[in-house]
Amino acid sequence: MLSAGAIGFIGAVFVAAGLVKGVVGMGLPTVAMGLLAVTMPPAQAAALLLIPSLVTNLWQLFTGPSFGGLCKRLWTMMAGVVIGTVTGAGLLTGAHTMMASAGLGAALVLYALAGLAKAGFTTPARHEAWISPLVGVATGLVTGATGVFVIPAVPYLQSLRLEKEDLIQALGLSFTVSTVALGFGLFTTGALVSPQLVGSVLALAPALAGMFIGQALRQRMSVETFRTVFFAGLLALGIYLALEAVPRG
Q1: How far is CA 10 from CA 98, 103, 163, 173, 238, in A?
Q2: How does pLDDT run across 122-176, given as a tens digit for each residue?
C-alpha cells in the first residue's frame, strides 16, 4: 500500500510529465521514468507510465489533421518499433539500464544542440522506404533498454520536415505504438503485475490535466517559438537523463 506522500509524489510527477508532453508533443515517459526511478526500479516505473502514456498519446494522435496519411507513410517504421521493443523488452530489467539511459541522454543533448543551432538534417523522400524500418527497430531497442521512446524516432520524424501539427501527430503515432509494444514486452517478461496497472490507471488523471494545460500553451506559440521550445525541451530531457545515470556515492 502506497503512503499518502508517495501517492502525492506520483501525482505531481505525472502532472509535470503531462505538461511537458502537451507543450512539445513528447517527454511524458522521459520525465516520468527519470523522476519515478528515484524511488522505484525502472521496470516498475515503466509499468506505471503505460496507461497515462497510452491515453495521452492516443489523444495527441487523433486530434491531429493527418492520421490516415501519416499511418500510410510511416507504417514500416511502426512495424520496426514493435519488433525492436518486443525483442529488447528484457533489457529494462537488466544490469545495463543506467548505461543505456546515459547514452540516450547524451544523444538527446547533441541532437538538441544541433537543432538549436539550426544545423538539422533532412531525410529525402526517396530514402524513407529503407530508413523508416531501420529507425523503427532502433527506436524499439532503445525503448526496451530505457522505457523512453525518443531516439532515434524524434530526430528522424523531425527530419521529414512535417508541419507543426503533423509532427505532433506523427510523434503521437510513434509513441502510441511504442507504449503498446512496451506493455506487451513487460507482460511477456513478467514485469507487469496488477498493482502497477491500478497505479497506472490512477496516474492518468494528473497526466491528462498537465497535458491539457500544455496543449493550451502550445496553441499560442508561433512556429519558430515552438521549434525553440521543442529543442530546448529535448536538451533539458537529455541532460536530465545523463545526470540521473551518474552514480551517487
Answers
A1: 21, 26, 34, 26, 21
A2: 898 899 999 999 999 999 988 887 777 888 898 899 899 888 889 989 999 999 9
Q: Could you write out the DSSP letters of every residue in 238-249?
A: HHHHHHHTS---
Enumerate long-range contacts of 192-195, CB under 8 Å, 24 or more apart.
Answer: 192/47, 192/50, 193/47
Q: Degrees (nearest 5) of the Cα angle 18, 81, 47? A: 45
Quote the percentage of the chain above a pLDDT of 70. Answer: 90
| DSSP H/E element including 175 | helix 164-188
C-alpha cell at position 239: 541532460
Q: Give yes or no for a contact between 158 and 59, defined as CB atoms under 8 angstroms apart.
A: no
* CA diameter of the chain: 55
Single-letter residue type at 174:
S
Alpha-carbon distance 136 to 82, whole Å? 8
Cell 491539457 identifies what position?
212
The DSSP letter of residue 191 is -
Report the C-alpha dihedral over residues 171, 172, 173, 179, rounded to 10 degrees.
110
pTM over 0.85: no
How far is it, in rounded angstroms, from Cα 85 to Cα 89? 6
Tens digit of each residue's pLDDT (9 = 90 or more) over 203-228: 999 999 998 998 888 888 776 787 78
The answer to whether 45 and 37 are in contact (CB under 8 A) is: yes
Residue type (1 letter), 166: D
